[in-house]
Amino acid sequence: MTDAAPAAAAPSTGEQTGPPTAELTIGRPAHGGHFVARHEGRVVFVRHALPGERVRVRFTDTADDASFWRADVVEVLEGSPHRVDHVWPVADALRAAARGRSAVGGAEFGHIDLAEQRRLKSAVVEEQLSRLGGTDRAVVVEPAPGESEDGLGWRTRAAFAVDAAGRLAMHLHRSHEVLPVQEMPLAVGPVNALRLWTLDLSGMERVDVAVPSGGGEPLVLLVPAPGTTPKRVGTVAASIDGASVGVLDPASGQVQRLKGRTWLQESVLGTDYRVTGAGFWQIHRGAPEALVSAVLDGLVPAPGERVADLYAGAGLFTVPMARAVGPDGAVLSVEGSAGTSRDARRNLHGQGHVSIVQGRVDAVLGRRTDRLDIVLLDPPRAGAGKKVVRQIAAARPRAVGYVSCDPASFARDLGYFRAAGWTLDSLRVFDLYPHTHHLEIFARLLPPAA
Ligand SMILES: C[S@@+](CC[C@H](N)C(=O)[O-])C[C@H]1O[C@@H](n2cnc3c(N)ncnc32)[C@H](O)[C@@H]1O
């Protein structure tokens, strides 16, 4: 079978040998925001299309030795009833094609009505579960709590590039090229209220903005281009009104304070968390609440239980689980990034039954042989992998909760659990990234009967 989903890959280095354009009929959605079509017997992963459409595409990767090609829609010949005007003009592939360029990334489903976006995400999860996880399951994608009807205004984190003229910009899809941008409709109001596009950002390579999920003063992190003087950085920082500003070293994740704070105060279901500017936090303003509720409802940690929160970030799930198991229980919270682990330490300060460990999950689990009642894992996109799945199974928990932002790595890991006799008990899928192909999964897995 050649139409395996393409990895979220780097641009192909293969020589382009195929035709520049073709007319194609679009088939099913594939993992990664693509739609499957065929051209002269070869699988083509097409972006910005919809199932059933007849489109003209421009090929973007056509190496002779590639098992599939990639293409982007440049003209719709017969459109789907689910096609709508794109929510964000600079991310609109058709508009971009008319100007002879690609669209910026970050809203690749913006041409699809929201209900259909969710049906497509369901289909992708179902297909991955079946193909990689050996499990047939009907999936319904739920909106985030408090989601707006148009699915806009949800991003609390945004990373911008800066163009050669010093303007706020974003990268074109799978490209180093950038395009100036102004309002970003997917972002929460306070990101746009900064009006960063009116500023001269020359000397900066990147500008990251973060806003607390519940609102509050934004934090802007500047990443200066090599050779930029501290004076120039100071001038840019001084031009930013209404935000804390810091300088981010992307290599170390360290943030140097220029004005205001270097961290954000987040609040989820009545609990406050401190998150450093560069530290991980869920992006959708409703995501922390949706996921904490799903985890607690799904795993029901009880007083006295021993739980592990793996890939724990700043402790989003560690804090409520620590409260649920109480001082007679025990919580192991494992996070790899030093800065984020420091946040977790602060967020769980003074809780003697919680052990915050900074390190790789496989290394930390490899040093332990004790039994756990519950294991929660929330790995990055690559998933946990066979070794960690085996280590979790070896701790013989009564339940595993798996939070995942990638249906393919989740389904693969589910396959590893199933091979060890575990079953997928319940599954929830959340649309925490409207107008993109991304989604979030919470699954409860149960061990083989004793
Ligand atoms: C998807 S985030 C989840 C964070 C947290 N559960 C939350 O929702 O806020 C994954 C986290 O795993 C951490 N991480 C990535 N690989 C890791 C590894 N091998 N061992 C431990 N932590 C890792 C990252 O630094 C990141 O904070």
UniProtKB/TrEMBL annotation:
Keyword hit for Heme: no
Pfam families, A to Z: PCMT, TRAM, tRNA_U5-meth_tr
GO molecular function: rRNA (uridine-C5-)-methyltransferase activity
Compositional bias of kind Low complexity: 1-11
InterPro entries tied to this protein: NA-bd_OB-fold (IPR012340), SAM-dependent_MTases_sf (IPR029063), TRAM_dom (IPR002792), U5_MeTrfase_fam (IPR010280)
Organism of this sequence: Arthrobacter bussei
Protein name listed in UniProt: Class I SAM-dependent RNA methyltransferase
Similarity comment: family membership: Belongs to the class I-like SAM-binding methyltransferase superfamily. RNA M5U methyltransferase family.
Ligand binding (S-adenosyl-L-methionine): 282, 311, 335, 378
One of the GO biological process terms: rRNA base methylation
Keywords, sorted A to Z: Methyltransferase, S-adenosyl-L-methionine, Transferase
Active site per the UniProt annotation: 405 (nucleophile)
Stretches the record annotates as Disordered: 1-28
Domain TRAM: 14-75
